[in-house]
Amino acid sequence: MIVVMKRSASQQDIDSMIQHVESLGMKPVVLTGTERTVIAAIGDERVAGVSSLESGPGVDEVHPILAPYKLASRELQPESSVIRAGSLTVGNGHVGVMAGPCSVENEEQIVATAKAVKAAGASALRGGAFKPRTSPYSFQGLKEEGLKLLATARAETGLAVVTEVVATEDVDIVAEYADVLQIGARNMQNYRLLEAVGKTSRPVLLKRGPSATVDEWLLAAEYILDGGNPDVMLCERGIRTFEAHTRFTLPLASAPYVQQRTHLPVVMDPSHGTGHTALVPAMARASIAAGADGIIVEVHPSPDHAMSDGYQSLNFQQFEDMMTECRRIAAAMDRKLGSDA
Ligand code: PEP
Ligand code: MN
């Protein structure tokens, strides 16, 4: 932490800041310049309650040196993490492909979709049983019945199941059926829920909140890691901007940027990130070219009749065509796509 004192700071202000830094368990190193004094506070600034330094008398600016997250950072773990859950591998040269409907609707729909995405090379089945919907009047998901149908689809295909948990009280039941727990964008800052999934042994797919900064997203991951669960994947699913031609704006640079800052794998969601079926394959290709460790894509047997997010879902043929294109991009990046060995 670097504390820059104002030009007008008195010796008393400087002495009081030195004492303050010491009281936080950090070592002050005073650099007396010709115009200003700078105090370097050496120690773990993340645990020291440093925001109080900013309001000290005579303080102009305070600059942190370390990333605010610790367990998620590459400073702590330089090598990239690889997440494995049944048929799914994300990282270490494997681009994980999670595909399936926005919502689980019935047995025929989820089993047919699981078989189709598996045949096209997906490595996991996605599908929401508990749905966080913007309107309370929209379909809220089949809940436990949906979890059972996902388990049926897994038994039929061998695909690992990725499904969302929306509430702390549902964590146990969802973890019983799911291979990967999805934390939705709307819940990225539900800290009690993050702590609860941090106590499970299931890998977590943590979606970015549409208005969250990267630091807030990584601090949300930190909650799960700090809870004792090391298996966290970050999912960029688009953010809210002034632009209205897409449902959200998908920042492709999140993949390489986040990979610089953290060892956790990054999964891109071109479905929610664009909100238009026609744009999904291009953004899936671009995500893989940008170095993403995985993609999550909405696929439905009949998108026109989907109970949620049909307008951004691919049908089986569109998914197969997308996978053929993505395979070529993955090969160019020296990566394997989905279930490819
Ligand atoms: C979903 O994956 O269907 C979903 C609800 O996503 P998000 O939380 O990113 O909106
Ligand atoms: Mn959806």
Question: Key features?
Answer:
single chain; 341 residues; alpha/beta; Alpha-Beta Plaits; TIM Barrel; eight-stranded parallel β-barrel; 11 helices; 19% strand; binds phosphoenolpyruvate; binds manganese (II) ion
Would you give an account of this structure?
The protein is α/β, with parallel strands linked by helices and 341 residues long. It folds into two domains: 2-63, 2-Layer Sandwich (Alpha-Beta Plaits); 83-340, Aldolase class I (TIM Barrel, Alpha-Beta Barrel), CATH 3.20.20.70. The chain is built from eleven helices and 15 strands. It has helices spanning 11-23, 51-54, 107-119, 144-157, 171-177, 191-198, 214-226, 254-261, 270-274, 280-289, 316-332; strands spanning 2-5, 27-32, 37-42, 59-63, 83-85, 88-90, 94-100, 124-126, 160-164, 180-183, 204-207, 232-236, 266-268, 294-298, 336-337. The strands form three sheets. An eight-stranded parallel β-barrel has the order 7-8-9-10-11-12-13-14, surrounded by seven helices. A hairpin with a 4-residue loop joins strand 2 (27-32) and strand 3 (37-42). Helix 10 packs parallel to helix 11 (316-332). The protein is elongated, with a radius of gyration of 23 Å. The structure holds phosphoenolpyruvate and manganese (II) ion (MN). Manganese (II) ion is lined by residues 102, 272, 298, 308-309.
Q: Given the structure, what is the number of helices?
A: 11
Order of helices and strands: EHEEHEEEEHEHEHEHEHEHEHHEHE
C-alpha termini separation: 47 Å
CATH topology of the largest domain: TIM Barrel
Largest sheet, strands/sense/barrel: 8 strands, parallel, barrel
